[in-house]
Amino acid sequence: MSALPPSMHVLERGWLSCNTLVCTGEAPCVIDTGHVKHAADAVERVAGLLQGRPLADIAHTHLHSDHCGGTAALQAAHPGTRTWVPEPSLPHVQAWDEDALTFGDTGQRCDRFIAAHALAPGQSVALGGFSWDIHAAPGHDALAVLLFEPRHGVLMAGDAMWENGVGVIFPHIDGSDGFEPFADTLALIERLDPALIIPGHGAPFGRAGGAIHAALERARQRIDYFSAHPAQHALYAAKVLIKYQMMDVERMPRPAFMDWLARAPALHLLHQQHRPDLGWDDWLAQVLAPLFDKGALKAEGAEVVDGG
Question: Which of 103, 149, 253, 279 is most buried per CB count within 10 Å?
Fold first, then answer.
């Protein structure tokens, strides 16, 4: 794997949180802040790297709750920090429109934060002493961006690129074509030819051993499969959203769990995309059975528990 510049530090967070990049050089910055559940951890780990220096900027590849949930806490710890979001998301943050930000539709939570600066594709932004090129990266999220530091070849990919697999293609849930834009984003990453990719989840990986090439091929195969079998994407997405919720809350009384499922609009859309021939209860039973069978969820008395 290619080495990061000495002032770039990747905090591998695991699930629920995304990876966080902290640049500790001139005008320190954080890119992607993790989930609200781990906000205190983000504040502590950033403070440990900054050693009393103020944080100048916070930026985001996109605004799913696992990428911006620590932003409010970091803003409270570092008053005056400039906060950057993808340009189309800026008015949604300023109005705190939870439906436009997808928190409401997916039943997720995120502490409210403020933002005044836009990451506009086609432009560059100075963050942490580096110049980052901004590229639109639709697919997983229609409004996402890539941040590419060309001098060292570092790509902050968000959920546009993982080493293994792909994330849920949220635009498709809403009825848009997310498959082709995702393929276009993968082609963009290939053209950028980064030396090192910092994915939204998982360890950073580089060119050594053809790791980036192999990751691109795996992602393309997965996107092609979902494009040919959209109902399978719907099933995958439903399982991911349910597991994500349970990783957050860890345990719920079964009636509260069933109520959360019934109140998540995205799950109803996925029901119609996957098996509209089944009633809601029968469909849920089909989705939940493998999660319990494989231990992703567990039943403990009257509670549903995350299986870890």
Answer: 149
